[in-house]
């Protein structure tokens, strides 16, 4: 993070996010001649218990805008589920595809979010920042009374749900960011973002061969490192699920359906990396993880929206999803998924993934 400007957004030098490239070029994601650089100048306003940025923690006041297609948004969906914040923070789900004018609420009756009353997420951004020129990204938290976006800083948003919203956590909520492990979680998360979470995009949106090959090798070197780390321990940091596991899961769950082919991350499929494949199945079968994943939305987003990579917009039918429910054997490594807490209850009926889009019963 490069500091915060007066408008509540993070400053920094020139960079491009996927959404900004789309807005500026009218539908292109790949900039020829170099590597993809993600713009990390987010709206860094925070919602905190002491309201130090002017936005207090308050049940019912905010709406989390997501798309199930997006890995960054998927993190917030999982954290919200595990912590039991469904009643405190409502959720607006955008459709899996969008045009250069931003995410739309086309899944809702009349094409409008029923709480915010808007057709496009851009309307919430412009309500606070008229003429906003950066990426209209999910996840974002919107203030319902004013209709204004508060933040789209997905990394901090996730941590704040764990640390600032404790008054509204469900009984038995796990500690996803335990204080004694925060330095290690932060260290691992930094490596994950650089080489894996953003690494797959650096492969897929590379503008020349050299940039692609550099990103490809960094990605698979890090995946090999993760496989070695996880061969002897069930979770990335400590013996329970933490923020680090959530951040890795949302990339791995998309690997074979999208990144292996569409983003040319094709040294190995996830199913050909035994430790990581068992690890991600373990998490997928854990309440709060797999029940947030919509494979149809994931594939439609990447293959339909990225037309400069996939000009026809044809969405592949595979891979077969039934193997996500096969035994993983990770229990033999010990560990307690929720620590001293308990699994979350099933998702509310209105938030359940379409049964046709998941292998879960």
From TrEMBL:
Q: Which GO terms describe its cellular component?
A: cytoplasm
Which Gene Ontology molecular function entries are recorded, alphabetically?
A: glutathione transferase activity
The alphabetical list of record keywords is:
Transferase
Cleavable signal peptide = none
Q: What domain of life is recorded for the organism?
A: Bacteria
Which residue ranges does the record assign to the GST C-terminal domain? 175-305
Task: Spell out the InterPro entries in the cross-references.
Answer: Glutathione-S-Trfase_C-like, Glutathione-S-Trfase_C_sf, Glutathione_S-Trfase, Glutathione_S-Trfase_N, GST_Omega-like_C, GST_Omega/GSH, Thioredoxin-like_sf
Residues annotated as binding glutathione:
103
Q: Give the residue ranges for region: Disordered.
A: 328-361
Which residue positions are annotated as catalytic?
A: 70 (nucleophile), 201 (proton donor/acceptor)
- Site (Lowers pKa of active site Cys): give the residues: 259, 302
Q: Which SUPFAM superfamilies match?
A: GST C-terminal domain-like, Thioredoxin-like
What is this protein called in UniProt? Putative glutathione S-transferase
This chain's source organism reads: Micromonospora citrea
